[in-house]
Request: fold
Amino acid sequence: MTVHDRNSKRSRQLRLVLMAVSVPAVLTGCGDDEPSGKVLTSREDCAAQTEISPAECEKAYQQALVEHEKLAPRFESEKECNDQFGACQPAPLAANASTSSHSYMPSMSGFLIGYALSQAMQPRGYYGIGGVSPLYRDYRSGGYLRPGGELVGKSSGTVYGKQGNTALPARAMTVSRGGFGSSAAARGGFGGSRSSGSSRGG
Reply:
């Protein structure tokens, strides 16, 4: 083997080692102490924040509204909905609903933007968007809840680790008693919540 061949072999081995070191950093994404998303309380917040491009933030807001219509928690009691969230509205009836009686749902009081795991090649240093979730402000605890009842936090701004998770439930949750959210879940099954038969509730 010539000196040139040995040098070429060492160069190839070095490149392979460097690739092996760099790949896990991309795949593992954000640790618990790394920013994983952002809680915004209104459409206007898109203009004030600097982590995501304003155009992408606007798209995220519109997507959150779509998911809100489908997945906002449905309360059988208007009073219970108002007690927890305030200013609840009748939920839209599903097209195949067998009854004309309404359930009630809270207004969307914020939205969560989850950052994409890999931030490579994002323009102007912006984060990429990995997902979006509508949020609901629980007046009793002050916390922001996702449609599945999970607590994201008690304030707007950057979130870390699992708090940036934007996974959405398959269907809206129907709340029959006891409230909606993590504290109710601790008392037993979202305080009597159950999955509705339709993704649009009813």
About this structure: Residues 95 and 200 are 9 Å apart (CA to CA). Residues 14-30, 183-202 have pLDDT under 50 and may be disordered. The first strand starts at residue 35 and ends at 40.
